[in-house]
Amino acid sequence: MDLIIKGFIIGLGKIVPGVSGSILAIRLNVYEKMIYAINNLFHDFKNNFFFLLKLGVGILIAILLGSNIIIYLLANYYDITLIFFLILIATGLPTIIKKTHHYFVAFISLLIYFGLMFIPPLTIFNNYYFMGFLEAFTTIIPGISGTALFMSLGLYDELLILFSNIYTLPFSKIISFGLGALIGVIIIVRFISYCFDKNSSKTYGIVLGLLVGSMLMMLIKR
Known about the structure:
This protein is mainly α. The protein has eleven helices and no strands. The protein has helices spanning 2-15, 21-27, 31-39, 45-76, 78-90, 93-98, 103-117, 128-140, 146-152, 156-164, 171-220.
């Protein structure tokens, strides 16, 4: 049940503009285990599978059922909701700072984050394969807010349509999104695992910059 609750919090974070689900996963101490479980699923299939299943159930419940909750909270208690997620993310800062001394790398990743967030809308990418891959990318890469990036690319409304009408959309669109997400997960998890194995301190420097960027973006778009 603990993992399902953590998954639910991560899923809610994915819905709130500016919040990164993976940063919340780091804060809740499940991120590295999640990456390991995906990348080594068949090495210890039972434990890894049930870990991912419980976490995934919580995330899925939050995305499918939590959207209306978040919409209500943002509409009626915007500042309180924002402060809650800011505090939740900020309390994880000391842990990440202890894991890196590459502050210049953090600064560069902060600049890159802001560059990504201010990309003009590009509706040319409005296809479900790309959206699925992008969803995987923003779920796994720490600090990148999927909601904010989808908004910047002009894809957020289409994503909401997908999740809110998942039972009525053509099956081909759902399959396309799922395939894009699956391919994204396989590629990006291996990349992240490689980065942590080769230089975890520098990788956490990148994470630190993305985390600070995510917090600043939440305040800017307030």
